[in-house]
Amino acid sequence: GGGLWLAACALSWPVAVFYGEPSLLVYLPIAALSLVIAGFNPTRIETAHRHLQMGRLTLLDLASQVIGIIVMIIGAVIYQSVAALVVGGVVGALAKLALTHAFLPGPGNQFRWERPAVQELVHFGKWIFLSTMFWFFASQGDKAILGKFLSLEGLGIYNIGYFLASFPLMLGQNVTARVMIPIYREAGGGDQPKLRRMRYGLSGGLLALLAVMALAGPWLVSVLYDPRYLQSGAILVMLSLALMPQVIGMTYDQAALAAGDSRRFFISSASRASLQIGMLLAGVIYAGLPGALFGLGVAMLLSHLVLIWLARAHGVWDARHDLTFALLGVGLGALAVWLHWDRVLGLSATV
Q1: DSSP structure class, residue 22
Q2: Mean pLDDT, the chain, whole residue set
Q3: pLDDT confidence of 38, banded at 50, 70, 90?
Q4: pTM score > 0.70 for this model?
Q5: Is residue 342 part of a domain?
Q6: Between the chain's N and C termini, which has fewer beta carbons within 10 Å?
Q7: Residue 37 domain-assigned (yes or no)
Q8: How far is CA 66 from CA 18, 69, 95, in A?
């Protein structure tokens, strides 16, 4: 947490210069304090994940988020400043720290130095640390890049489409991060039917949600937002299609963590982030927002090849699964583009 906070402090000046916002020099270090706070969260959180105690964890997460949101609302009403969002995030992290220490069962943590544990953490954790950095770039890099090329209004329109399209992805990531590692460890490579059922069920459910977003996206945006944001519907269609390859391979990388192979997990994360940032940047430079969305889709396809390499290394690749859902995705994608072709063509007007 301390290392990430120092990294955020070091990045605050170049980021402020890049966006022409001097206030980021102050806001970024304050917002990054939540990373320092998270470093003091009890290890009982991970123990609860391992034992699939999702009910209590979910309640504590929701409670801390509600506390943070209340602080944001009160601060925004009183001060009418973006600082309310920054402070609310830090308060939410403090709330999670306090609630998890108070209400999660198990022995408490104490400061102590154990050389074998340190060596194991450095050996395994260095790749996790680097993977986390690349995960951040992959999840936030599109907004960072497009913020330079689009107007504030155009970025807001994109964010609406991204928020709706990424909902199935975030749902799947939460499920796999909490459930798949214990299942892989329990299976130990010997209960492939159980893994196959879980993989097919998760991929099918998430692909169905993305298909709904792709097919009904413009209608959904027209119901939820006023006419100023109708272009978000076409963005929702294209982003839903671009994210389909990531959904198909979502369960594979957790096999590496279950086996203690944090190095291959890092290679997968770094490859995906580098491809996403590189292809999106090239796309937006040469073809604007449509090019960025197309580049994102190409990056997802290419990064799936790295996932196949990782999955084969751990004996969990299911070629039939990938082919089945790839064909479904192509069919649904073609139908969505055909239905909303006029709106997709209009994306070039988003600036």
Answers
A1: T
A2: 84
A3: confident
A4: yes
A5: yes
A6: C
A7: no
A8: 33, 5, 9
